[in-house]
Amino acid sequence: MRDDVGIEVDGLSRRYGTNQALDAMNFTVQPGRVTGFIGPNGAGKSTTMRVVLGLVAPDAGRALVGGRPYRSLAEPLRVLGSLLDAGALQPSRTAHDHLLWIAHTQGLQAKRVDEVLAAVGLTSAARRRAGDFSLGMRQRLGIAAALLGDPRALMLDEPFNGLDPEGIQWIRGLLRSLADQGRTVLVSSHLMSELEGAADHVIVIGRGRVLVDASVHELLAGVAAGRVTLRTAAPQAAADALGRAGATVQPAGPDTLTVSGMAGPEIVATLNAASVAFTELGTQRVTLEQAYLGLTQDTVQYRGTAPTDTAAEAES
Ligand SMILES: Nc1ncnc2c1ncn2[C@@H]1O[C@H](COP(=O)(O)OP(=O)(O)OP(=O)(O)O)[C@@H](O)[C@H]1O
Q1: Least CB-packed of 46, 81, 229, 277 within 10 Å?
Q2: What domains can be seen in the chain, in order of their start residue?
Q3: pLDDT exceeding 70 applies to what percent of the chain?
């Protein structure tokens, strides 16, 4: 078995005019797990991936694949397979010929073409012109091209684009099995929900910087911590009592409140002291999407409060 191939992004910066697309971007992608690369449009996902592939030169920092710059690799497609733009194909070529052309130019075995077409479910469409493919089929063809060299690492930019729900399920399973084979899998999306159940690790970026680099488990546990669901026939009285004691309380249904900023035992004590009855108290199960929204909210709040703090300092 060939060596593991990690992807290392070290202090990448890249400016376009006055726009700082990458701002000291730092992270490492480990083998054997699916790493989601998440951020809103324009956050810098594609630019980072282009730098990794040596297609864009950074102003500062470097990117390494298996410890080496991608451009210095003797057989790059055997090391890192990538999908950047599913539209980048010669429309008059059939899917089969498109892949055969890549295999020839890259010194890969022609028999891989049929194998990867089967792996992405395009065998029956292999002789059709790629120009007539739907976006979802082009995504599958792009993934087939990324798999041609049987690479130890894969980097896919927005592979869920254009896929129907069945296609999204399929790609989640594919990513999982590639990671289970010990490969390094980096997959970008602007929707956290697309990666639900597929990613083991997430790198959330915004404005060219890493905001969060954590396992999905840590992320969900971190957001769930301190968020408690409370069921009570007296939600207003409960909210008043808990609010006075310093908790943050939000309605979550007719008889249900979400309480944060206070641990379970303290909630019980506070409600008992205020003689408010409740029927249920439990920690929340949080989805990846909720965790992501929570993170984004924190970023927005942080940006919002910064000028006020500065003003206060200036006055004092
Ligand atoms: N070739 C370019 N010329 C000028 N600006 C660019 C270029 N490439 C990227 N940018 C800018 O850099 C920033 C990051 O873009 P990038 O495409 O990397 O983001 P992204 O996270 O991949 O977004 P999306 O989900 O929309 O693809 C954006 O503000 C974008 O407009």
Answers
A1: 277
A2: 7-214 (3.40.50.300), 225-283 (3.30.70)
A3: 89
